[in-house]
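User: structure tokens for this one?
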Amino acid sequence: MEADKVARKERLERLGADLLSGGADASEIDTGTPHPARMYDYYLGGHDNYEVDRMAAEEVITIVPTIREMARANRAFLGRAVRFVARQGVRQFLDIGTGIPGPGNTNDVARQVSPDARVVYVDNDPIVLAHARALLAGHDPEHTTVIKADLREPEEILEHSLVRGVLDFDEPVAVLLVAVLHFIQDSDDPIGIVRRLMAAVPDGSYLVISHGTGDFDPEGAAAAVRSYDRTFAPIVARSKEQILRFFEGLDVVEPGIVQVPWWRPDGEVSEQASAIWWYGVAGRKG
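Assistant:
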């Protein structure tokens, strides 16, 4: 156990060095406030998180014992959604709020279907960026890149030179907002953000969303939401009807909006899937 702690500390120090070598300010790394991306990494069994993240994550686990299963189900949903969209002929992916990279990244999954797929990762956490830079070190920058930007400022993302250098907005783009919109407060106009993103992509593009909800266990979800209030990004659990509003003007593809394990499963769905409080849904423009 002590060896694991030492290895984790060394890994995080290397990530900090990578971040600084990329020209970022060390003050950007906030190790005093729990961050959802690092908590999510902990749920998935990762080691790239700090004590403050682990303490906050364990607090959530006591409230929602199935949160680890939820995180794994969401990661699996991402993979199935990327494969589905790629099989529809879409070769460009804008993955916003990507989180700390792990097995089954968007670029790996997409290229299993389309070897020439282009992917842009977007996140606002410096630790995530350090991981992503390391992950992409051996990739062609004309096909895969990562930028630091905030979903709440979609124009900054859409007009970023690296985004425009990798993605061709005259061709369909899959906009991936997987487990990120529930961190956007209503006061930040999440529906307006999504509409601005989708207005920038042509017909044939897709929107993919997974989102936390209180529909299945209102009291449990409310307690989990409260536990995130002291993190870098508090959560808003939205209903099915509220989530579907993001898809107004788009054609929602089968099976519609469902709990993520039931979105185009590639195997038998466990009975425990009913305890997954995240919806998954995809829609096509035009």
